[in-house]
Design brief:
There is one protein chain. With 287 residues, the protein is of the alpha+beta class. It has 2 domains: 135 residues, MutM-like, N-terminal (N-terminal domain of MutM-like DNA repair proteins), CATH 3.20.190; 125 residues, Orthogonal Bundle (Helicase, Ruva Protein, domain 3), CATH 1.10.8. It contains 6 helices and 10 strands; from the N terminus they run H-E-H-E-E-E-E-E-E-E-H-H-H-H-E-E. The strands form 3 sheets. It has a 4-stranded antiparallel sheet, covered by helices on one side. The chain binds a DNA duplex (16 and 16 nucleotides) through loops.
Amino acid sequence: MPELPEVEVVRRGLARWVSGRKVDEVTVLHQRSVRRHPAGAEDFAKRLQGAVLGQAHRRGKYLWLPLADDLSMVAHLGMSGQFLVRPAGEPAETHLRVRITFADALGTELRFVDQRTFGGLSLHEPVPGDPEGLPYPLAHIARDPIDPAFDDDAFHAALRRKRTTIKRALLDQSLISGVGNIYADEALWRTRLHYERPTAGMTRPRTAELLTHIREVMGDALAAGGTSFDSLYVNVNGESGYFDRSLDAYGREDRPCRRCGTPIRRRPWMNRSSYFCPRCQPVPRAS
DNA sequence: CGTGGCCCCTGATTGC
DNA sequence: TGCAATCAGGGGCCAC
């Protein structure tokens, strides 16, 4: 389940192994993987053929590589997406969705593999005047907390304005990007905040503490090469990253809280799960 | 318009 | 043993 640190690892892999190469052939093996390309799979392939893939950019969990002609190839890994750089001619992976070959002599091709097809590739024009050439579908995606331009004060003000709960806000990519279910639980545990705490009650020091912990969790994961729980996450060269043994809350139902020993609880939440320590992170009164 | 909830998908795991 | 239910979850989309 790639979160921001994993996606950043993929970005670096693309920058090293793919940027600057000229596309030869594009084969779309699953329509759903290009569903965000409005003009369809054939158009996607046609426009990409012959283009040189530019520098690899990231905003939150989105990746994009500008082409020479104003369009960018946008990628989202979703739940199970992987970019693999493989020797051309290697057998296709079971869930290979898009194959991109190159017009050079390096002998490798780029493969987008995605078991659950929540991810996908598409081509888009930039938001007019955006200095980074941010593609249109990403216009509403906020900066991530390890982006130097992330505005802590603006984030705090947005939390105060909202009438929602803290974990919902952390997963709202228009407020802060790159935080997924796992790292939200980890950061809330570190901050001793229950996931249903109203954002309107956040104080400035509390927000600052929360951001610090989010950055620590992400930084730790990035240093470890990304988090993984199974073989679904593989970086651009096919190597798994492992970080799960240092998780404090996520996936630890009934196991003792590393701070106080109280068994960690799991609660159904938004069709997924929230993990928390009932003692360190007490349920807010008004919920 | 802001907020909350549903749903897309596949495979591993669990339960009967 | 075999089949069905459950779970995993990013984020777009829609209803209220």
